[in-house]
Design brief:
The protein is mainly α. It folds into two domains: about 55 residues, Alpha Horseshoe (Serine Threonine Protein Phosphatase 5, Tetratricopeptide repeat); about 90 residues, no CATH class. It is about 85% helix and about 0% strand. The protein is rod-shaped, with a radius of gyration of 29 Å.
Length: about 180
């Protein structure tokens, strides 16, 4: 049995004592649970409540401070993990960008001939960057709980859609000058 599992066991045992209103036994169980796992937020919280109900308000206040420190620690760890996910997202972005660029360049060369290879590279690169940038930004912004971020994801979608249409017309006119 791991320390986390054992801590959970002692926390649940403390919960059983609270139901019976045996706060001294509950406090002992919760103290042992947090001794085994210093990050057991639920055990800390229940320890504070039991201390308060047992009339040990100063001790409950100290536990409240520990809970606040634990919350800050968990927020810092979450931000650090999000930063590492963001870094891997950037790498995926460039891999996806290169893939889309290659597909668009091949499409351009196959369907419109390879008359101007530089124009093909430029067109494929710009279109790939716009498409991949939109996909990446959309999912990065959409995957949050903030409504403002979701609004910006939809706004970016509108701008990208319009930009792709305008850019496609410009490129098409450059490739086939007779079209007006």
């Amino acid at each position: 049995m791991t320390a986390t599992d054992e801590s959970l066991f002692w926390k649940e045992r403390g919960d059983a004592y609270v139901i019976k209103e045996q706060y001294d036994h509950a406090i002992s169980s919760y103290e042992y649970a947090v001794h085994l796992d210093r990050d057991n937020f639920a055990a800390w919280n229940n320890l504070g409540c039991s201390l308060y109900k047992a009339g040990r308000k100063e001790d409950a206040y100290r536990v409240k401070n520990t809970l606040e420190e634990l919350q800050l620690k968990q927020k810092r760890e979450l931000k650090a993990s999000e930063a590492s996910v963001f870094t891997s997202d950037i790498l995926l972005f460039f891999v996806f960008l290169a893939t889309v660029w290659g597909i668009l360049l091949g499409y351009r060369l196959y369907f419109w001939g390879g008359a101007d290879l530089n124009m093909g590279f430029a067109w494929a690169g710009i279109m790939a960057f716009i498409i991949v940038g939109w996909i990446w930004a959309f999912f990065l912004l959409w995957d949050t709980e903030h409504i403002v971020c979701k609004f910006f994801a939809l706004l970016i979608t509108g701008f990208v859609g319009g930009g792709v249409i305008v850019l496609s017309r410009l490129v098409y006119r450059k490739i086939i000058p007779s079209v007006s």
